[in-house]
Design a protein that fits this description.
alpha/beta, 9-stranded mixed β-sheet, 5-stranded parallel β-sheet, 14 strands
């Protein structure tokens, strides 16, 4: 009887500097429920020798395979085929696992057997010295911890906002991959984008664990930090094309919110590739082809789902832009916002406090004034840590512990920290205080859409 619960797949290629730390982070917590599949993809350095030395006395549930250099996707696919576990996880050979990763995951698998994907976060180790800000692999302020979601609920509310597609930051039921023939596209960069979306839409239940179970290393000459080549943009076009081929799978849910997120995801990847191309000063055939495909794709989009996201997407990639179309979209956005702000205005007979003092709060207050025609009447700003003092507009700052003394209604106007704030306010405030969670009510990032419109008008 197979006792293996988790199969860890480790592709290796020329990482002699890092492979010891990577493997030791696994071997130090290995038990009978874990198997490790190490595949050397034709390394030309001492990686294979180091691996053999490390596992020489620890052959328990460890498989070591060598092959000619076929690339990361090929190695991962082979690892899936060789695996015996109920769940699959991927570990890049220049990264490491936290010391309690297996105990945490085995605990959650036992506790939530119905879950198909467990997402988790990473601690970042940045060895680059180029002054660039690196991506943070952390969903803590975007997704509720230890909560089970239907897969399309997660896609709708968190997938694009959290924006982490790394295959290394999730534990996946193997049967999802096997039953749906989900594999990594071989010979392609950005293979995680298509793989991760495919896994999600073919799953039923997912869960996010707000724990850093992975150590993600940024280093020179890795796949993700290398210089931009034509292939980078060509493979982004491949990602977009693959996303377009998933249209039937996503439209079957008949949810305009799901469909809008799908459009947002496609546009996000398109603009990523387009900006990369513009930065290099290139004009690539693959981008012109994918743009034509997108226009045809949008022409066939269901009439009933052609809301704001669709209108904005179509306008931004079209050749025949005009200011009248832009003004029409702008009016649509203002109408949408006005309904939200009117629902807030009805609370002005109460004592209102605003939880949040950052950029999004300032924009929120400015837009409220512009659209409603007068400033929002509120008593104070709430802060989690600060106590006393005044904001630049003269409003007092009150610690969250004391909010009941000054407010009946709390508006959470922060975007980046709204979940953290919502959790804090529910922990500390009991009683009849009304909480207006602005971004949850809003459902779309209107500030981002305003940015697009401003950019178009400025140009």
């Amino acid at each position: 009887m197979n006792n293996i619960i988790i199969s860890v797949i480790i592709p290796v290629y020329n990482v002699e500097k890092y492979i010891s730390n990577c493997l030791n982070s696994v071997l130090n917590q290995l038990n009978e429920k874990i198997e490790v599949i190490i595949i050397d993809d034709g390394s030309t350095d001492n990686s294979a020798y180091i691996i053999k030395q490390l596992i020489n006395d620890q052959l328990f549930n460890i498989m070591f395979v060598s092959q000619n250099n076929l690339g990361l996707s090929s190695v991962r696919n082979k690892g899936i085929e060789l695996s015996c576990g109920e769940y699959i996880m991927f570990l890049d050979s220049d990264d490491e696992l936290a010391e309690d990763t297996f105990s945490v995951l085995l605990n959650r698998v036992k506790r939530f057997p119905e879950v198909d994907i467990f997402y988790y976060d990473a601690t970042i180790v940045n060895e680059m010295n180029d002054g660039k800000v690196r991506k943070i692999y952390n969903r803590k302020n975007q997704v509720p911890d230890n909560t089970i979601f239907d897969s399309m609920e997660y896609f709708r509310d968190y997938y694009v906002a959290a924006s982490i597609v790394s295959a290394c930051l999730c534990l996946i039921k193997k049967k999802i991959l096997v039953s749906n023939n989900i594999k990594f596209d071989e010979g392609r960069l950005y293979e995680d984008n298509v793989f991760s979306l495919n896994v999600l839409i073919h799953s039923k239940k997912v869960c996010y664990l707000a724990q850093n179970l992975y150590l993600r290393r940024y280093r020179e000459n890795s796949i993700t930090t290398g210089s931009i080549q034509y292939k980078n943009i060509e493979d982004i076009c491949f990602v977009i094309d693959s996303f377009l081929n998933l249209k039937r799978e996503l439209l079957k849910y008949e949810s305009i919110e799901v469909n809008n997120v799908y459009l947002s995801l496609i546009y996000k990847v398109y603009i990523w590739g387009y900006n990369m191309m513009q930065k290099k000063g290139w004009s690539l055939y693959c981008m012109s082809v994918i743009r034509k495909e997108l226009m045809e794709f949008l022409k066939q989009w269901p009439l009933g789902n052609r809301g704001l996201t669709y209108q904005l997407f179509r306008y931004l990639i079209s050749d025949d832009k005009n200011l009248s179309e832009l003004d029409r979209i702008r009016k649509y956005i203002i109408y949408y916002k006005k309904n939200i702000f009117l629902s807030i205005q009805k609370y002005e007979s109460n004592r209102i406090a605003i939880y949040g003092k950052g950029k999004h709060t300032r924009i929120f207050l400015e837009e409220y004034k512009d659209i409603i025609g007068k400033p929002l009447e509120f008593k104070a700003y709430i802060d989690t840590y600060q106590e006393g003092g005044y904001e630049n507009d003269g409003k007092p700052i009150v610690n969250i512990r004391d909010v009941k003394s000054i407010a009946d209604v709390v508006i959470i106007s922060s975007y980046e920290y709204r979940l953290e704030m919502l959790k804090k306010i529910k922990e500390l405030i009991l009683g009849d205080i009304i909480i207006f969670d602005f971004y949850k009510t809003e459902k779309i990032n209107i500030f981002q859409e305003n940015y697009y419109i401003k950019q178009e008008k400025d140009s």
